[in-house]
């Protein structure tokens, strides 16, 4: 759904793991200026995963373009200030193609989606540059036009109500596994044209990605292999049954096949890779948008009450600005996906060498006080909010309109149907999924007054 995020390519963090190389730097000589990097906070620990924002504030002030060793062993530059981040996201000297990574032997294969190379799924929007990126993005962008997304809105509402119906009578739920996770899976499967009877298989494979996305890469690679095999078979079946002319609302996989058969030069591997990345990248971002967003509302009762009052008056403005603010405040994508310098360049006064990986820290940039007033305050009515949660430049998130629709529908329906929704755990006991790219909760236990069967829906 997007050529911004994909699942994590780093192991789970453990307390005290992967200290920054600068932490072993020599002590400053008496009389010399202290080296700010020598006191850099630990990154990628469990404590950091729970609340990375103090560490990012330190980096923005003292080391805004900071070289660090990631838990995977790969060394990369972290870009944390808004102005630098925006520049880097649009700089075409930073390639998305991992072939430009000047990687040592120990880093081979550690910067992409596990298993994608072996499954011949590399030719997708996260790994390519213009002109191929331009061609492939143009082919798929028609599925995410405002008109197409608006036509899909009733289906998203139907899915949302059906999922809430399943737990509304219980008075409790885990909103990640029972709601935030299945909603975007079923939605993107519908958009792609995955038959309903096969969608639970996709849910299982996607669940494997979320469970293992920050841990052993083998679990994700196995799911990637299964998806690749299924997509090859599905593309073959759809090609055999493809009508001469497209029907209104034709599914995306059929559209990709039609393009490859009618002069757009889309290979079967490209079609499979495109379908794969739309599913693979398109669901976890929305899982985290719904999960992080609900958690932020439940821990900011005044803002939550303000939104509920607005929804009761059938107003939409606060819902729309509110979702944008939730994307800025604690968004689903912590770091933009990998970029690699193709020539010498300078970001924020720091020289970057050809082949060096660069990771733009969206979570840090979106809390930059040089760009946002009171950046650590959640304000659902914030207007001047050009956050980078969906990226910037030619790789701006392709599926942003659909993600916004799903986020707005999910949050509005939850708060309307379950008005006394509340956390069923101490926030300190909640755990965040470890990893590198995404930011999301493992679980989100909630309680509410049970709703009698048949009383739901809108």
- Spans with pLDDT under 50 lasting ≥5 residues? 1-34, 114-120, 212-217
- Helices, by number, come to 15
Order of helices and strands: HHEEHEHHEHHHHHHHHEEEEHHEE
The neighbouring-strand order within the major sheet is 1-2-8-5-3
Largest sheet: 5 strands, mixed
Find the structural class using helix and strand composition. alpha+beta
CA gyration radius, whole angstroms: 22 Å
- Overall body shape: globular
Proportion in β-strands: 5-15%
How many DSSP-defined strands? 10
Mean pLDDT: 82
**End-to-end CA span:** 27 Å
Give the helix proportion (percent range). 40-55%
Description of the molecule:
The protein has 458 residues and is an alpha+beta fold. It has 15 helices and ten strands. The protein has helices at 46-50, 53-62, 82-90, 132-141, 146-168, 175-180, 182-192, 199-212, 217-241, 252-261, 268-298, 301-312, 317-330, 362-365, 400-417; strands spanning 65-69, 75-79, 94-95, 172-174, 339-341, 345-347, 350-352, 357-360, 422-423, 445-447. The chain has a five-stranded mixed β-sheet. It is globular. It starts with 45 loop residues before the first helix and ends in an 11-residue tail after the last strand. 48% of the residues are buried.
Descriptive tags:
458 residues, alpha+beta, five-stranded mixed beta sheet, three-stranded antiparallel beta sheet, 10 strands, globular, disordered N terminus
């Amino acid at each position: 759904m997007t050529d911004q995020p994909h699942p994590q390519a780093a192991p789970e963090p453990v307390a005290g793991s992967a200290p920054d190389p600068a932490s072993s730097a020599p002590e400053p000589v008496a009389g010399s200026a202290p080296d700010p990097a020598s006191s850099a906070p630990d990154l990628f620990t469990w404590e950091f995963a729970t609340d990375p924002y103090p560490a990012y504030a330190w980096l923005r002030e003292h080391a805004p373009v900071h070289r660090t060793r990631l838990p995977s062993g790969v060394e990369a530059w972290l870009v944390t200030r808004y102005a630098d981040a925006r520049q880097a996201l649009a700089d075409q000297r930073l390639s998305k193609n991992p072939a430009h990574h000047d990687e040592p032997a120990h880093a081979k294969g550690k910067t992409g989606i596990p298993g994608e190379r072996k499954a011949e799924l590399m030719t997708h929007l996260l790994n390519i540059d213009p002109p191929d990126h331009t061609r492939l993005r143009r082919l798929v962008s028609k599925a995410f036009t405002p008109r197409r997304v608006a036509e899909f809105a009733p289906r998203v509402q139907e899915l949302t109500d059906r999922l809430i119906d399943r737990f509304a009578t219980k008075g409790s739920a885990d909103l990640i596994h029972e709601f935030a996770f299945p909603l975007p899976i079923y939605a993107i499967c519908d958009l792609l044209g995955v038959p309903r009877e096969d969608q639970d298989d996709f849910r299982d494979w996607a669940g494997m990605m979320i469970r293992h996305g920050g841990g052993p890469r083998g679990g994700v690679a196995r799911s990637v292999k299964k998806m690749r095999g299924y997509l090859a078979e599905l593309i073959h079946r759809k090609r055999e049954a493809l009508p001469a002319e497209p029907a209104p609302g034709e599914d995306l996989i059929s559209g990709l096949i039609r393009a490859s058969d009618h002069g757009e030069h889309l290979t079967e591997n490209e079609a499979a890779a495109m379908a794969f990345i739309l599913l693979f990248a398109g669901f976890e971002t929305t899982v985290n948008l719904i999960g992080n967003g609900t958690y932020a509302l439940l821990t900011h009762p005044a803002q939550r009450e303000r939104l509920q009052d607005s929804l009761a008056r059938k107003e939409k403005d606060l819902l729309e600005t509110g979702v944008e603010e939730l994307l800025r405040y604690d968004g689903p994508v912590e770091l933009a996906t990998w970029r690699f310098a193709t020539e010498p360049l300078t970001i924020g006064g720091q020289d970057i060498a050809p082949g060096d990986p660069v990771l733009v820290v969206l979570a840090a940039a979106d809390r930059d006080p040089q760009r946002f007033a009171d950046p650590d305050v959640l304000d659902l009515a914030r207007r001047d909010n050009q956050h980078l949660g969906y990226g910037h430049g030619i790789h701006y998130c392709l599926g942003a309109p659909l993600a916004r629709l799903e986020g707005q529908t999910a949050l509005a329906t939850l708060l309307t149907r379950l008005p006394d929704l509340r956390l069923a755990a101490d926030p300190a006991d909640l755990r965040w999924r470890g990893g590198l790219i995404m930011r999301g909760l493992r679980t989100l236990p909630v309680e509410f007054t049970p709703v009698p069967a048949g009383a739901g829906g809108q």
